[in-house]
Amino acid sequence: MNQNLAQFIFSGTTTGAIYALIALGFCIVENSMKIVNFAQGDFLTLGGMFMFSMLYALHLSILPAIVLSVLAVALIGAAMERFALRLAKSKETVVLVFITIGASIFIRGGIKLIWGKSPKSLPYFSGAHPIDLLGARILPQSLWVIGGTIAVFLALHHFFHHTKQGKAMKAVAYDPKAAALMGINVEAMMMLSLALAGGVGAVAGILIIPITTMTFDMGVMLGLKGFAAAVLGGYGDVMGAVIGGLLLGLLESLGAGLISSTYKDVIAFVVLLLVLFLRPRGILGKEEWERV
Amino acid sequence: MKKLMVVLLFIGLVIQPALAKEKVAAKKEPIKVGAFFALSGPAAFIGTPTKLVAQMAADEINRQGGINGRPIELVFGDTEGDPTKAVAIAKKFIYVDKVVAIIGPTRTGTGMAVKKIVEQAHVPTIMTVGGDPVIMGGRFGSYRYIFKTPQRSSTAVKKIFIYLKKKGIKTVAILTSSDGFGKDGKRWLLKLTPQYGIKVVAQESFSPSDTDMTSQLASIRTKNPQAIICWTIGPAGSIVAKNVKQLGINVPLIQCHGLPDPKYVELAGEAANGSIMPSTKLMAWQQLPDKDPQKPVIARFVHLYKDVYHYDKEFPINTHSGYAWDALMILTRAMRKSGPDRERLRDAIEKTKGYVGISGVYTMSPKDHNGLGVDSMIMVRVENGHWVMESY
Question: pLDDT for B18-44, tens place per residue?
């Protein structure tokens, strides 16, 4: 057995947790508006950048900086719903998705203007001293990322399955008109979902900036990986997002370590394609039944 | 007869001054030079300061009377680091703006994309890209009109190997990015190792947008190399440095000549300490021996950059800072001899001899369109966040 196996698995888990966190953001908007929000990756960049400013420009300590950054991006998410998506005359999926692409470009431009083009980084939250575990060396920051993903997953799982609000949000996605007739405030639900997606994106950005560093266009590539993870797990399923993310991360890291680092992305995408051939709705995706 | 006199007088009074006037206008008409860099996109943090330095050099040239009395005018373009955009801008420079020559672009990929176009249009182009294929012939196409100011990758590789040989290091692992720049480095690393008696015991690669390279480094660790050579630009290099420290790998980490930049230290933090890399003399110019002819030239450049233009606040000086300056100065030197005729200008650039620039002393030839050797570089090491000259 390869002596580095534990290292590959822990590296893959960390990367996978990052993808899962982004996939969860995609999942929230799918569960309220049934659209793919292409600005999800940019929410992540925004979170990292706000964190950078909170720490270095406002000199806050870590906890208040995290809370304020998450709130700031949640607010931007809500604003995106209120001032872009809601104003669209047509509620066709294609139109709304294009608006999110526009918002994504707009946010990237804004980040470039405010924070500049050069990459940013932060020190690790709890030191750079790696922990030895089963022969692998793990950064404490990785535990922050994995812990953050688990926390967000549990919160969202609870929200969608055990709260009235969460169920109402899913109802809006299923049929906005029927939901409105049941007394659900459809617009408020959509706004809430974008705010949540913004908050989750910000959490991801804040947790990963010490590991990955942050540039204004970082969200594009990570957003795509997160999207792939969400599709792999079953688009819109909270559990599926986590499974898809972890699987993609592990495939990349094991592919790089055990087979070839040159072809690691190819390996990951071949598996992605295979899964989608066999299960077009993703690992946990359910067939949709239309009642006629 | 009288009529003829009147006509002659008329010619003398009206047409002659008109002609003279035209002459003055021709004298003052600016010489247009196209300048395109990656002002946005992933290489924006290199491209933007390059543009600022190009403008600074143009101002300096114009202050000294321009080119035989005609000022130089830069026409700027943003390639976004995208080959397609770069091609569109190069065509605009040539056919719309009708520039005499071009400087830029920033990335090797964009350089390769415009290579064919400027060759076909016979426009002298001095590039500021890292990779060598732009000035390589054979399957890379012709390079009659193309020059580049940054050192060749092969020069940086040789500098590294000379250093390793001096340190008695015989086995290395190489870790390269999968983009054009990384592949170029890998090609030279593998090609030149036999000449220096060095063995490559592991080869790994990563995508420049990757966020974690511990898998590759863990595989490298099992092969026990005496040094690790990493070839990439941008934040990925600092992630590699962090991952090396995370895994507790204690052999020297050698980075490529693209990374000597205060940003590297900022992004990698503590993990940057101990990294060794080949660099232009700009990174540790105060530590150069006084006999080095570049020292006063660099001092003047740094003075302008820091004290006159105040660029260092947003873009601290890095190893790349001088490329655009050298490109424009070489162009100007040649144009003062040749005039703005493209063909004669090309010949004059190729005859550049002993130009003392920021990035080295340039001596070009028909075979060498770069003109820099290993003596133009130094090895630098990061020590407590500062750049120290490791070997001259």
Answer: 544 444 444 578 999 999 999 987 778
Contacts of B238 in chain A (CB under 8 A): 121, 213
CA distance A260 to chain B (A): 8
pLDDT, tens only, A200-242: 999 999 999 999 999 888 898 899 999 999 999 998 899 999 9
> Would the CB atoms of A261 and B219 count as touching at under 8 Å?
yes
- Among all chains, which residue has been given the structure tokens 């470009």? A105
Cβ–Cβ contact A126 with B under 8 A: no
Residue ranges per structural domain of chain A: 10-219
Which range has the worst mean pLDDT, A122-126, B123-127, B345-349, B366-370? A122-126
The long-range contacts involving B282-291, CB below 8 angstroms and separated by at least 24 positions, are B282/B317, B282/B318, B282/B319, B282/B321, B282/B322, B282/B358, B282/B359, B283/B317, B283/B318, B283/B319, B283/B378, B283/B380, B283/B387, B284/B378, B284/B380, B284/B387, B284/B388, B284/B389, B287/B388, B287/B389, B288/B378, B288/B389, B288/B392, B289/B392
Q: How far is CA B172 from CA A122, B130, B193, in A?
A: 31, 23, 9
B39 vs A93: CA distance, rounded Å: 34
Domains assigned to chain B: 30-151+297-372 (3.40.50.2300), 154-285+377-391 (3.40.50.2300)
Question: In chain A, which ranges are continuous DSSP H helix?
Answer: 5-33, 40-56, 62-80, 93-115, 140-162, 164-174, 176-181, 186-212, 218-233, 238-254, 264-278
- Contact check, Cβ <8 Å, A265/B207: yes
Contacts of B222 in chain A (CB under 8 A): 3-4
**B177-219 pLDDT tens trace:** 998 789 889 999 999 999 999 999 999 999 988 889 999 999 9
CA nearest A117 in B: which residue? B45
How many Å apart are CA B258 and CA B264, to the nearest integer?
10
Statement: residue B48 has pLDDT above 80: yes
Contacts A15 to B, Cβ<8 Å: 211-212
Contact list in B for residue A4 (CB cut-off 8 A) is: 215, 218-219, 221-222
Query: Tokens for B298?
Result: 């660099």
| Residue in B with minimal Cα distance to A9 | B215
What six digits make up the tokens of A173?
């996605």
List, for residues B256-265, the tens digit of each pLDDT value. Answer: 998 999 989 9
Claim: this prediction has a pTM higher than 0.90: no
Distance of residue A117 Cα from the nearest chain B Cα, in angstroms? 6
